[in-house]
Design goal:
By secondary structure, the chain is of the alpha+beta class. The protein has two helices and three strands; from the N terminus they run E-H-H-E-E. The radius of gyration is 17 Å and the shape is globular. The two termini are 22 Å apart.
Length: 128
């Protein structure tokens, strides 16, 4: 792993935006009404927040997470987050894990997408 400085496309997030406030949930609902028409990641529930939306929701500007090599950054990615634009090409090595299953299944456990041979629409790494 390598150092991530301010010009190295660092992870950034908006402090406090992980909270499910009434305003945040209303914003999510409003986004969901038009998500399929917007397309891209938004159509799959990964909404994009505009700076004007951040201000209207009462959040500060995103902060960049610059770290020395071999630093583990753990984030609640319900918070508004993304990568900081870089003025040059960058390579960032990361290990990405996800412990979330589909919240809309009517049962717990027995996730059919976890069966061997079933393709996911994203790459995943199962650590055993």
């Amino acid at each position: 792993m390598q150092d991530v400085g301010p010009d190295d496309d660092p992870f950034r997030f908006v402090p406090g935006s992980h909270r499910g406030t009434d305003e945040r949930l209303a914003w999510e609902y409003e986004q969901s009404l038009h998500a399929t028409q917007v397309g891209g990641h938004t159509a799959f529930g990964s909404f994009r927040v505009k700076p004007t939306d951040l201000e209207a929701l009462g959040f500060d500007e995103p902060i960049a997470v610059t770290v020395p090599a071999n630093t583990m950054v753990i984030a609640n990615t319900f918070a508004f987050h993304g990568r900081t634009p870089s003025p040059h090409s960058t390579i960032r090595v990361e290990i990405n894990g996800n412990l979330r299953r589909n919240p809309f299944l009517p049962w717990t456990g027995l996730d059919p997408l976890a069966f061997p041979g079933i393709q996911h629409d994203q790459m995943s790494l199962n650590l055993k």
